[in-house]
Each structure stands twice: as C-alpha cells, then as structure tokens.
Amino acid sequence: MGNVLEVFDVSKSFGGIHALEGCSLQVEQGSITGLIGPNGSGKTTLFNAITGYERIDAGSIHLPGEIIVTKDRPIAPDKVFRTGLGRTFQLTRIFPRLSVIENMHVATQRKGLGSFFSRWSTGQEQRRAVELLHFVGLDDLQEHLAGELSYGQRKLLEFALILIADPKIILLDEPAGGVNPSMINHIGERIRVLNQEQGITFLIVEHNMEFVMGICDKITVFHRGTNIAEGSPGEVRNNPAVLEAYLGD
Ligand code: ADP
C-alpha cells in the first residue's frame, strides 16, 4: 500500500534554534507508525507542521488528497483536518463546562455538516456520538461535565471527538502519557481495533517505549531535528545510533 502522509526534507527554525533540520518521514496507509526521540528532538514541531499549526521553512509535506504543503504554500489547520487528518494534543482540548455528550455535539457541528441541526435533532448524528462514546468506553458518563473526567477519560473523550470526523489518519500526541496502566492498555486496544477493523492509519508520538514497541508496525527515530533511524520495533531497539541518541542527551 502507498503512503498516506509523507514528509520530505523539512526544516523549521525558531530564531536560532533548528527545531527541524531536513527531516523526512513516511507513514504507510494502514500502518501504526511511531515517532520517538529524546526531548527537544522536534517531534512536536513536526506534528505542528503537519497539522498546519507551524509554517515550514523548507521541504514539503504531502497530505491525503494529494495536497502538498511548502514554505510558500502553507495550509490552515482546519483545511488539514478536512483532508481526513485528525490530531490529539498533549493537553486535551475539550470544553470542561460542557457535558461529555455536549462536547460531542460541538465537535459534530465543527465537522461542517450543512444541515447539522436537523440531523442532530433527528437523532442520526446523536446516535453516532453515543456509539463512539460506547466505543471508547465513556457511554456511562455522557451527562457528566467533561471537566470532571479523569485525565485518562479526557483522552478517551478527545479520541471520540476526533472519530466524529471519520479521519483516515490520526496523529496521537502521547496517548499513554500520564494515564494509569489499565487505561494505557485500554487506549492501546482501541487503537488496534480502529486500525484493524476500520483501516485507520496512526502516527503516534510517545515516550512510553513499552507502549510504542508493543503497538507500532514501524518506528521513526528523531534526533536533533532529523530522522536518524527507522524500522520495525525490533530493528529500532537494536540500532546503536538510537541508543546513542538517547544516552547522549
Ligand atoms: P520534542 O517534541 O521532540 O520534545 P519540540 O519539537 O518540542 O521537540 O522542540 C524542538 C526544539 O525546538 C526544542 O529545542 C524546542 O525548545 C524548540 N522549540 C519548539 N517550539 C518552539 C517555539 N515556539 N519557539 C522557540 N523554540 C521552540
């Protein structure tokens, strides 16, 4: 299968800091691809570049739908979203004073369905929202305020919010960060189901090595703003350059 997302030779500086320096990345359609690297290696900057939150200085990013982003052809985040690319953030972006189901309602609206209100009131979209909450395991908490959810539950809600848009590819920013081990297993298992049953591609930034190694087909390793290695979890784990990157910093 082809690649659903490709990054070629991308660079990005902040003042004198080279956050990305000629980095490349390929995400094969249907894969669960991991992106790892020491702190400050440029992973978040790359996520921001791919999702239109940062302009790049050089190189190109090939998004679904044959959209090519360059320095001179930037793209707005909502346009990226409409190519079928969904993203979670390290700090979840939900409305804490709305209930869980109300958050789903708002996300449905943002999906940009023309006749949205009638669809929600006729129940079609609402049923889908409830189905997705059931899928992530939050259906019992529909009426709870999102701000009262645990950190792990908020991550699940954010996951459900992204699924409303029927994404082709989901970028996950530290899905296992700060959540307890049983929640980590639950999140990992949901990712596998979405990947295997619905063919959703994943690109995952994560520091929890056990989680990354356990779930990803392929891993790209970043160091000082560029990709220094890629391969299966086994290949990456035994790559001396990877060990050095982690130990050296
Ligand atoms: P990672 O996600 O791998 O930890 P980042 O992409 O967050 O790495 O950071 C890469 C480098 O770019 C770091 O040196 C960081 O301090 C710098 N950086 C990232 N964003 C900004 C910004 N908005 N302004 C200045 N420096 C930044």
TrEMBL record:
InterPro entries hit by this protein: AAA+_ATPase (IPR003593), ABC_AA/LPS_Transport (IPR051120), ABC_transporter-like_ATP-bd (IPR003439), ABC_transporter-like_CS (IPR017871), BCA_ABC_TP_C (IPR032823), P-loop_NTPase (IPR027417)
GO molecular function: ATP binding; ATP hydrolysis activity
GO cellular component term of the entry, any: plasma membrane
Alphabetical list of SMART domains matching this protein: AAA
Residues of the ABC transporter domain: 5-249
Any one Pfam family match given in the protein's UniProt record, by short name: ABC_tran
Annotated keywords: ATP-binding, Nucleotide-binding, Transport
PANTHER family from the UniProt entry: CONSERVED COMPONENT OF ABC TRANSPORTER FOR NATURAL AMINO ACIDS, CONSERVED COMPONENT OF ABC TRANSPORTER FOR NATURAL AMINO ACIDS-RELATED
Protein name per Swiss-Prot or TrEMBL: ABC transporter ATP-binding protein
Annotated organism of origin: Tengunoibacter tsumagoiensis
Lineage, top ranks: Bacteria, Bacillati, Chloroflexota, Ktedonobacteria, Ktedonobacterales
